[in-house]
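Q: what does this look like with adenosine-5'-diphosphate bound?
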Amino acid sequence: MKILFATSEAYPLSKTGGLGDVCGSLPSALQALGDDVRVALPAYQHALERVTGGVREVAALTVPGHDQPVRVLETLLPERAVPVYLISAPALFDDRPGTPYHDPDGREWPDNALRFAVYSRAVAALALGQAGLGWTPDLVHGHDWTAGLVPALLAQHERRPATVFTVHNLAHQGLYPRETFDQLGLPPAWWALDGLEFYGQLSFIKGGLVFADWLTTVSPNYAREICRPDMGCGIDGLLRHRRDRLVGVLNGADYDVWDPSNDPLITRPYGPDTLARKAENKRALQRLFGFAEAPGTPLIAHISRLVPQKGTDLLIETIPRLMSEQVQMVVLGRGEPRFAQALTDLAARYPRQLAAYVGYSEELAHRMTAGADMFCMPSRFEPCGLNQIYSLRYGTVPIVRRTGGLADTVVDASAEAVASDAATGFQFEQATSHALLEALRRALRTYGQDAKTWRQLVAAGMRQDFSWERGARAYQALYRQALQPPAQPEPAPRSRPSARVRREASGRLPRETSGRVPLPPPVAKV
Ligand code: ADP
């Protein structure tokens, strides 16, 4: 099978979070299963700087909305044999402070809609064989709102590749005013409930959710959650409507990058049989942050975007009470300035116990994951979450809110789970600082008073296997399904709903009329 990934991140060329990790590692896991996978990524300046092999121009395209030719540059993902097409439009993907999506103050770049529309049009042209590459995919796998227009653009063509669209985070939808829709010159018919209109706005993510043949998200639990009104970000109706085409595939971890026995970024490699060496990583971390190098003092890590989704505010609220315990904590993150400031202030107040590094550091993330005893993730919602999966492998016990993929990957240390040796961490239910503090205290008690259970949790966590092979097989099975029977031009209904109430903009669309027989999905149907 020939598959083209359409993604705005792929580690190590570009990464702000889990999307980058997934699109940097799933393609090679699929390749190992025999598929021909290529990745189409915006040619950000920072991505061009991280390319390690050669780059050659393979095509130049005329794309509406961009007055210069959009060049297609071919390279390989560093340290992988995965071909990458870099979509080059220097005015759009130039070097900017902050992230590819936001300025340093967390405001969206004003030209984001244009940037990802031009990117999507170029990817659609590649996928339709219009760039003269001599390679056309059987299937395009689009990721998140930044690639949302790709399935919509492809659906306009009778002969087109099949499409799969993955939601990595439903909260990010790419919503813009009506004027933007007009400025982008999108087909007028798309301004409809069964198109890209969403409560009077243009929704990029609807391009994927309405038009892709199959939808996936990154954990079975999140796939169920996003079909509920309380978790569906206003678009749960559409997801319920497409439920028979929505599959939850749990993300995998790239153990080539995240394995303590073979991690060049940590102080001393270790594994389940050489756990004593983990203590050297802890000592190095304590030294780095100027803490007492006390082997028995529990050290908690938190690595995250600093946003309400991740429960940063809950953590901030909890810290003053937590600091009355004998504990040390290190936080690494960037995001909303108010949270960065609050963490910096707290670190100044508790210099011997709390350190906050505001910024982005891949190296520090590895060192913290290896050196800490516990990893805290109090997310309000969490599509999959990768840090808890990495932590398990590093023998760093996760403390997580029971939501999304966190619930799918961490087994709470209940008496039964401990007795059956299944427990790997600590969960809490309510999104409150009180519940978080309780869970942290439960973990601290076990660490301090029950060394046997603690060792058991660490060992059980390190035994877990979340490698990509399982996830790649699930995607491969889904791709096969998407290709059988051959793709039809219009997966979504074209009839304009007449007497529908406004509320249905969130998705109660007419049943699909493509005439395809829905086949059972390969895994975890919602
Ligand atoms: P999300 O994609 O919602 O941000 P995930 O848990 O799926 O969350 O993935 C987060 C990834 O980004 C992990 O690899 C994590 O280590 C990394 N990460 C997040 N913030 C930082 C940071 N400030 N510095 C380094 N790595 C970070």
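The two ends are 26 Å apart (CA to CA). Residues 17-19, 21, 169, 303-305, 332-334, 360-362, 365, 384-387 surround adenosine-5'-diphosphate (CB under 6 Å).
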